[in-house]
Amino acid sequence: MARFREFKENKSPELYRYYFSLDGAFQSKLRRKYAGKVGLKELNKDLNTDYSQWKDIHLSRTKPEGPPGQLWEKFVRKDLNLQFIHVNEQAQQDYQKLLKKNYRQNIGWFNRSYGTNIVVLMRFSRQ
Questions:
Q1: Which end of the chain is more exposed for a tag (fewer CB within 10 A), N or C?
Q2: Are residues 58 and 11 part of one domain?
Q3: Which residues of 35-57 are buried (b: 16+ CB within 10 A; e: fewer)?
Q4: For the chain, how many structural domains are there in total?
């Protein structure tokens, strides 16, 4: 994989490179939901925003408050590839507490439900 990445970054012509735009993907999703220019007015009404063009809409790095946050969360949960998602340390700690609280007494059920072979619930770390 490293050799391929090196080739792609250093030797492949720029013609063959593709840079993915998260803002563009988010805008496209919203355009499909709120089709056309009239749709932008409807989106502004639903979100209490005042975008004048679709290109003014950006995908925030963190979840915004209120109605825009609902669209953001739906996009991140259902459409965004995991390679673009980062979970901060506090959220990881909160998730660990939830797992310990809910599954400590029934690790077998947890393993069957999630297809894992965990013996003891402990802190998971990123590698």
A1: C
A2: yes
A3: eeeeebeebeeebeeeeeebeeb
A4: 2
Angle between helices 36-47 and 66-78 (to 10 degrees): 120
| Helix H or strand E segment including 33 | helix 22-33
- State how far the Cα of 59 lies from the Cα of 76, in Å rounded to an integer: 9
- Inter-CA distances, 50 with 9, 42, 56, Å: 39, 10, 10
Same domain, 10 and 28: yes
The residue with tokens 């490293």 is: 2
Which helix (H) or strand (E) segment holds residue 117: the answer is none
* Statement to judge: residues 30 and 80 lie in one domain: yes
Same domain, 53 and 93: no
Would you say 36 and 26 are in contact if contact means Cβ atoms under 8 Å apart? Answer: no
Q: Which domain holds residue 100?
A: 87-127
Going by the DSSP 8-state scheme, the letter that residue 101 receives in this structure is H
pLDDT single digits (tens) 83-118? 898 888 898 889 888 888 887 777 788 888 888 887
Q: How confident is the model at residue 119 (pLDDT cuts 50, 70, 90)?
A: confident
